[in-house]
Amino acid sequence: MRFARRTGVAAAAVLALAGAAPAAAQAAERPGAANATATDGNALPPGWRITGEGAGRELEWRSSTEVPMGDARVEFRSGDRLLGVPAPQRDGRTFRLELDDARTTGLTDLTNLQVTAGGRRLDAAGDDEARRDRKTPAQVAPPAELPAARVDPGRPGPYATVNGEYALTPVRLPGFDQPVEMQAVVVAPKGVKGPRPLALFLHGRHATCYKGDDVSGEWPCAKGWKPIPSHRGYLRDQQLLASQGYVTVSVSANGVNGQDWAAEDGGAQARSSLIRQHLARWADWAARPATAPAAVRKAPSADLSRVLLVGHSRGGEGVNRAAMDSLYAPPADQDGHHGKVRWRIRGTVLIGPTIFGQNPVADVPSVTILPGCDGDVSDLQGEVYVDGTRGVGQGRALHSAVYVVGANHNFFNSEWTPGQAKAPADDDFWDDPEERDPVCSQGTPTRLTADQQHRAGSTYIAAAARLFVAGDDRARELLDGTGRRAPSADPARVLTHAVGAGRGAGFLPDDGVSVTGARLCSAVDPDTVKACLGEEQGVSPHFAQWDAPRETGRQAVALTWSAPGAAARVTAARPMSLAGHPRLALRVIVPPGTSGTRLDVAVADARGKRAVLGQVRVDGLPGSDRTASAWAREVRVPLAPAVRAGVDLRQVSALELVPRSASGQAWLMDAWAWKPGTPAVRAAAMPRVDVGRLTVDEGDSGVRTYRVPVRVSGSGSGQVRVYVFDPATGEASDRLVTVRPGRRDIDVPVKVTGDRLYAYDVSYDIAVKAVRGAVVGSHRGGVTARNDDPMPRIEVTPVADRVTEGQPLKWRVSLSEPAAVDLWLAFSVAPVAGGTELSTKDVDAAWLMEHTGEEADPERPLSGLWFLVLAADVPAGSTSAELTLPTVADSVAEQAETVRFVMLGDDGEPQEGGPELTGTVLDAS
Q1: What is the dihedral of CA 576, 581, 582, 586, to 10 degrees?
Q2: What is the dihedral of CA 871, 874, 875, 877, to 10 degrees?
């Protein structure tokens, strides 16, 4: 597969500034940092540079290999601090973040730079560190096979199927310049009478267009290019459901994928709008069948009161938002669908999903499929669709996590699978030929083939449909942590845990508990003393990072022991009732690759009466340093021993875990009273919070106060946690807020001071997360104070522009007036007009390697390098800085040699006719 390139070699160095969408669906090898830097005296790490000038200043990182266009969001970070989400560029390797958007007040803050996506480092420095720390075993065995469940949803049903497609007039969605296609493939049961439930599929973020071996992320596709039919990648899933009596439709979202890089929410609202546009059409066709397209007329009528939404990757986040928007209306100006909701969503299936806002819908049942070898959304942040619902809604909706050992991200979609796709496709879990991964490299005992993975996915989608839509409670044991398997998914090893449904009161570490004999740890905290996991302990989906560098109230209980017998005691804030439930269900993490961790489980009531309920064994998942395998296993113990011991189950106040293994580690996520069954779910009336963005000019003087725009709609009251970010440090303060519609409960004033000095835009951001009885749509926004002062004029004067070889060339860059921020002024090497040009042998070799990543041999003109810039850092308040080019002496007699550097403009292109650096180097002999 190749990235599409439509520019000449001379323009390749500045392709990144075109502002286009990314250009590839996959990468054949993992990305790393390109060996290029942007500075003279203050070097950024390899691969990083500053481009442009004035308001066009951008922080750029370029990978040495193509970065796949995937669903995980590429982020620039400085340590634990999120600087921002860069725009992907047309060459598929370059990412740029406008410094006006970067959450930093000055370039001096850009230390410990990192590029991450889905929790993994993309830059080479992070990969090298991972190599040094790699401690994975040579071989990993798959988990033991579980007993078969009472039902097997992976078996085809009795109906023949019929296929068809429709293409309607494209729709306009807010924030997108280009219309989005209304295209879908329909698979339905044949010869069936009466309305049938509807399952709607939405694919994730993938390349949009292809031509031969080239792919691009543009929309619409250029002439001669074809749209990638990602929506046809779930035909096997659709056919299975259709054979069981469901009408299915899989919709295309290339128009969203080609434009969502600019959306603050990553396109979640746009995908929701697209889904609901299709559902509205299906509601129209159900009422007036004669108006339906031919593909729909061939299908039975759809029962819109029984809808299942299935989303892959960012499509998963899209169906979650669609479920939310169908219950709690979004702000009209942000929404691409307006009209009455004429459907009821009974559940969602989320396959390797993103959840950038960490805002799941608590009262809509869900199944989240977590691929154990996901090379795209590799932190498995979709676990938040389970964990993030606890305590928020009524607790009756089942939220299941389905961990598929050995599955990657792409192979759930046949159009993203090599050998099956029409367009170029790759395995997203990149394979290192020098050091194969013991769990996820193809051919290992734990890695699934593409067909095995797709079959497992189909089976568990059908299980969700059977439980949520058909109401067959026998399918629950495949999803709720009971520990049963569907033989149709063999040989896949599929593990599950869940919250909600038949679970009652429980011990939730986020809810004011006290802990003795163990540590109450923080899921997200840069302080390793407080954090649940250190870097050497692996990656846990339960602790996926969010916008804030540390979070309040998101916790677990960490146990460490070197001898058996010492109890860890978790005491609830108030006694709870476990009565009426036969078992206690616990979710416990142990380190990946471990086995035989044994814990006694006991409870005590408010009077101090204690009883041991039983002993559990917890085994770790197969894992490596490249997988997010620190995932909780669900274990259950009977509550009958407590009854026999006289414990008052109506007043249980404490839970104890007593290690019986010789040594080990474990993390308790939660423990719940459990009973079988899937209760009916009715969404509670809740307030909905949406954060907007206000952009204002700073002005020339005075102080003006603005407020972050926050809309609270819906009904009732609820609690959310509001994080307010300091634009200078990136740190966040937080507070718990009770919100009600029609009130200004979230009031964040922002003071903007006017001046006449040039500076960058400053964003005063907040982020909101639901805590109890609320939903959050657009979770992040703020006030952006726009610089309205012109860039100072720039002049260049020579300091030493005619020197003998071995002496440095020097120039002074001057500003007409000082600026309020550091200014980086970049000059790119350019061919000289005439004479002999300075070559790679005429400058210091170490300097050349540091600034370009290239060797001096073979000798070539400096303008023949892929990219070489000199950049001056003019500190805030100063008006000048020097640039230096070191030269070396040699014994070769030669003519005078010259060099030329041209200043880069706002668009990253050399400014012909603008300021230049020119110099001449004379022969020493």
Answers
A1: -60
A2: -160
Between strands 749-753 and 703-707, the pairing is antiparallel
Q: How far apart are CA 270 and CA 255, in angstroms?
A: 10
What amino acid is encoded at 585 in this protein? A
Is the CB of residue 506 less than 8 Å from the CB of residue 587?
no
Q: Are strands 809-815 and 880-885 parallel, antiparallel or unpaired?
A: antiparallel
Q: How many CB atoms lie within 10 A of CB 682?
A: 9
Tokens of 250: 């899989």
Q: Which two tokens stand for residue 553?
A: 């109230």
Which residues, including other chains, have CB under 8 Å from residue 618's CB and lie 6 or more apart? 588, 590, 597, 598, 599, 633, 635, 666
Dihedral sign computed on CA atoms, order 67, 73, 78, 80: negative
How many residues does this entry show for the chain?
925
| 527: three-class secondary structure by DSSP | coil
Q: Say what the pLDDT of residue 183 is.
A: 98
pLDDT, tens only, 397-425: 999 999 999 999 999 999 999 999 999 99
Phi and psi at residue 639, to the nearest 5°: -90, -5
What pLDDT is attached to residue 101?
A: 57
| Whole-angstrom distance, CA of residue 99 vs CA of residue 116 | 18
Q: What single-letter amino acid sits at 655?
A: L
d(CA 446, CA 462): 24
Query: How many degrees, rounded to 5, is the angle at CA 902 between CA 898 and CA 908?
Result: 150
Contacts by 284-288 with C-beta closer than 8 Å and gap 24+?
286/195
Beta strands 687-691 and 775-776, pairing class: parallel
Q: Could you give the CA distance from residue 220 to residue 511 in angstroms, rounded to a whole number?
A: 49
Could you tell me how many helices (H) and strands (E) the chain has, helices first? 10, 51
Tell me the residue ranges of DSSP E strands in 289-359.
302-312, 345-351
Residue pointed to by tokens 């929506």:
231
Q: What is the pLDDT of residues 163-208, one digit of tens each?
A: 999 999 999 999 999 999 999 999 999 989 889 999 999 999 999 9
User: 481 — alpha (psi -120 to 50), left (phi > 0) or beta?
Assistant: left
Phi/psi of residue 451, nearest 5 degrees? -70, -40
Closest alpha carbon to 258 in 221, 218, 224: 218
DSSP string, 637-663: EESHHHHHTT--GGGEEEEEEEE-SSS
pTM of the model: 0.87
Amino acid letter for position 827: F
- Evaluate whether 89 touches 98 at the Cβ level (below 8 Å): no
Burial classification of residue 791, based on how many CB atoms lie within 10 Å of its CB (0-12 exposed, 13-18 middle, 19 or more buried): middle
Q: For residues 78 and 75, give the distance between their C-alpha atoms in angstroms, rounded to a whole number.
A: 10
Task: Identify whether the C-beta of residue 368 lies closer than 8 Å to the C-beta of residue 386.
Answer: yes
How far is 607 from 619, CA to CA, in rounded Å?
A: 34
For CA atoms 232, 233, 239, 245, the dihedral sign is: negative
Taking the C-alpha atoms of 16, 20, 25 and 30 in order, what is their torsion angle to the nearest 10 degrees?
Answer: 20
* From 68-77, 526-535, 569-578, the region with the lowest mean pLDDT: 68-77
d(CA 828, CA 97): 19
**H/E run at residue 101:** none
Q: For the stretch 414-442, what's the b/e string if a residue is b when 16 or more beta carbons lie within 10 angstroms of its beta carbon? A: bbbbeeebebbbbbbbbbeeeebbbbbbb
757 backbone dihedrals φ, ψ, rounded to 5°: -105, 140
Number of other residues whose CB lies within 10 A of the CB of residue 646: 11
DSSP string, 501-538: TT--SEE-TTSS-EEESSEEEESS-S-TTTBS--GGG-
Q: Is the dihedral of CA 127, 128, 129, 134 positive or negative?
A: positive
Tally of CA atoms within 13 A in the half-sphere of 849 that contains its CB:
5
Q: Which residues contact 196 (CB under 8 A, 6 or more apart)?
A: 188, 189, 245, 246, 247, 299, 300, 301, 302, 303
Contact by Cβ (8 Å): 244, 115: no
